[in-house]
Amino acid sequence: MRRQHPHRKPLFQALMPLGLSALLLLMAGPALAQWKWRDAAGKVQYSDLPPPAGVAEKDILQRPPGQRQPVIIRPIGQEAAAPAAAPGPASQALAPSRADLERQAKAKQEQEQQARKQKEEERRVAEQRAENCKRASSHLRMLEDGVRISRRNEAGETEYLDERQRAEEMQRTRAVISSDCR
């Protein structure tokens, strides 16, 4: 076993503070990209996303580095537009009502239920196809092996398949296999 000098730290322990410092510096980068604005109620808001579209330019207090203030070009002689109006009935009409939200939730629930039903139906059809495939494959093996195959006719009498009937049955069975054995 290798002995360390009593006054030396292992390399990992020596580099640990340096690594932590680098990690903190990397994490501080996104923190610099902050937006700061005053909302309609006068409260200061902070976010890493730009403020909502309704926030007036004069209420944006801070932008991330590299984000420039937009330049508004007006024809000569026109004054600046009036400040944005306080939220009133017009902006409240844009917000969805409780009934609208309930209708949306109910519609979403119905869509999910319909999707579950369709998925269950697809699963059932897939199981039926797999069963048909298994039976048809077994039947085709019997036909190809030359096993005598009999049926009951309408009168209840036993009939054996001749070569022509066997060929027709093989063709029909292969069609089932090609449609259900995918």
Question: Could you explain how this protein is built, in words?
Answer:
There is one protein chain. The protein has helices at residues 11-32, 89-94, 98-145, 163-180; strands spanning 35-38, 44-47, 60-62, 150-152, 158-160. It has 182 residues and is mostly helical. The protein has a domain at 129-182. Strands 2-1-3 form a three-stranded antiparallel sheet, with no helix packed on it. It has a two-stranded antiparallel sheet with strand order 4-5. Strand 4 and strand 5 form a beta hairpin. The longest helix is centred in the C-terminal third of the chain and has 48 residues, at 98-145. The chain starts with 10 loop residues before the first helix and ends with a helix. The relative contact order is 0.06.
Low-confidence segments: none
Radius of gyration: 39 Å
Percent helix, as a range, is 40-55%
Which structural category do the helix and sheet elements fall into? Answer: mainly alpha
Give the overall pLDDT as a whole number.
Answer: 79
Shape: elongated
State the helix count. Answer: 4
What order do the SSEs take from the amino end to the carboxyl end, as H and E? HEEEHHEEH
Separation of the first and last Cα atoms: 63 Å
Strand order of the largest sheet: 2-1-3
Count of β-strands: 5
Largest sheet: 3 strands, antiparallel
Strand content: 5-15%
